[in-house]
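Subject: for your reference before the review

Hello V.,

The reviewers asked for a structural picture of the protein, and I figured it would be easier to keep everything in one thread rather than splitting it across files. Below is the amino acid sequence we used in the manuscript, unchanged from the supplementary table.
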Amino acid sequence: MARYLITSALPYINGIKHLGNLAGSMLPADVHARFRRMQGHEVLFLCATDEHGTPAELAAREAGMTPRAYCDEQHLLQRTVYEAFHLSFDWFGRSSNPPNHQLTQQLCQTLEDNGFVDERTSIQIYSPVDGRFLPDRYILGTCPYCGEHEARGDQCDRCGRLLDPVDLIEPRSAISGATALEPRETVHLYLRQADAAAQVEAWLDQRVHWSFQARAIAYKGLRDGLKDRAITRDLEWGIQVLRDGKPRTGFENKRFYVWFDAPIEYIGAGVEWAEATGGDWRRWWRCDAGAADVEYVQFMGKDNVAFHAASFPITLLGSGEPWKLVDRLKAFHWVNWYGGKFSTSQRRGIFMDHALELLPADYWRWYLMANAPENDDVSFTLEHFQSTVNADLANVFGNFVNRVTGLAVRQLSGVVPPIGPLQEEFELLGDVRRLLAEVTAHHEALEFRKAAAATRALWSLGNSYFQRMAPWEQKHGAESRNATALAVGLNLAAMFALVAMPFIPETAARLLSALQVQPDKWRWPDVEGLCLDGYLGSGAEFAAPPILFSRVDPQSLATWSIRFGADPQQANDS
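And here is what came back from the structure prediction:
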């Protein structure tokens, strides 16, 4: 049994996330965690809300709340919707909790002692209109490299370069739109990233199992040259800057920059989990306590890779301590809404809470993973969602299960007969094993679209077998053959549910319960040991489940299109 530490990029505290956010980090992480657990491995799946920084501070002010009260409210909202989407976090923490404060302060002091952090006077952008220094991401302007007009002061999403606000052409405040911005001197702590470039490159050279997208972004950052970056900001809400356990002189009104403390919360969430459960977080995060044997897998959107491929590793490597660093990093492109961006203000796109008002979570989970943005940006359209759900879930999987179980209840009175030695079943078993091996290999390679496609092919194989056998035809002398076909069909339904469980866990559990497959058998099927009566043997009792999936009808599609600002023409133009 292996051990897998799995993390997904931390969702920011402001608001419920849209389906693109879900598809690019948390959902694939959950699918992988479920798959590894079903294989019998030990898994620790961690996530948390990212709660510090100016956006939370400004949102709290607008809501008439303190930042703490605002984050308390938003954390509960997010945790509730993630539970409703069946995200199986072992712990969903908060970057504002004490473990992250302590770890951030401790790591900063260790980095400074090791020469990787120093204090510098630098030029930061001050907005007299806003009455504050502006955080990098709250300064917008034109990217000097690619000409993108909406580049942020920390990064250009179009070309992927990390930026400083002073690099931007015609900068403006993202808060007020003010262009009368002033460069002013201020003192901050800096992470000496340039000094660690060779160390990071040597480390990246060993990360051969990262996705192509992640490796490309990581090496591009090295080619562009790592820059020293400030790890503090002039803020009120965040982690206090200490030295030797006391407020650092001159930093009383400053806080750690959110990009520095947020990744440390991966470890902080592990500490929170240990405090709540009595587990040992060190055996997952400290190589001197057993974490060297752990495979650490991270999931995130492509815009998060640059920090996770350089800044966070530098934080851990520069400490000189035996922290566990990521082994595999899976980066995703973006899910767009009809070729454009999801937008709360413009009522464009479906967000997670609204999605659950329309259909159960498994519909969305299947669609988003069957069309995961692994190799390029993808465009979400309601029309494609409808066709995928109807074809895959209703017509293929649901149709197979409903036909088999419905007929079996009528003909077998809810009791499984023995399987006869028919050549048809031997051939079927070989095909099932071949496809099951493909599904397993794709999951292990973190290839979610391919895993979904192979899962769908398994379902189709069952339909083809059942159609050939036609056990509904009551011909003289065919009773044994028909009984065998139904027994095989019931066992296939159980196996199909298990293979689908990482994608559609609620539906799979409902089907297995109806078939009376006990939870101790809810394991990933073994390719070599698979047999066609391994789940419901002769004499086992079963029942037919309710309809697994309803078709998405045209009227619903029309209503949703109006509600969420769907524009098929924009999708065609893109």
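For the response letter, the relevant points are probably these. The chain has 18 helices and 18 strands. The CA atoms of residues 272 and 278 lie 10 Å apart.

Happy to draft the paragraph if you're swamped.

O.
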